[in-house]
Request: fold
Amino acid sequence: MRDLMSSLKLPALGLALGLGAALGLLAFGSAADAANPLEKNFWLSGPRYDGDLPACEAALPSITHQFADKEGTFWNSELRITGYYGVHEVAFRSWQSDNIPRRHCAADAVLNDGKTRPVYFSIIEDGGLAAFSDGVEFCVVGLDRNWAYNPACKAAKP
Reply:
């Protein structure tokens, strides 16, 4: 038993010394330098937003598809949006002018259960997948089941 304990101490001691030496070398290495002017400014001109967003009606097919997908996939629901009326713009670039341009809209959605519910949505410039297209965020009042825009879709409004 005594031979076993003494044989375990030697490799552990060697491992500790080796690890300590490696960390000591890293701690006393050279410091990282700041980026030079070429590294800081080479092709990094910043975002260029045009503010050229489509009208509110252009987002309705995307909302219909995304709503059906979310309800069917996550909530095992057969709810679908069958139509819209009263589509109107609520605000455009409602925040500071240098933020990502958004067109905030509202509408009433008719669902296949016969109910009409308000929908608040925004079209976001370069907000799509990998910023290749405009993105759409929406909230149907009363059907925000994961409370992403709670209460009553207030966070989806400008």
Q: What stands out?
A: Helices lie at 2-27, 37-41, 60-74. Residues 2-27 form the longest helix (26 residues). Residues 46 and 92 are 22 Å apart (CA to CA).
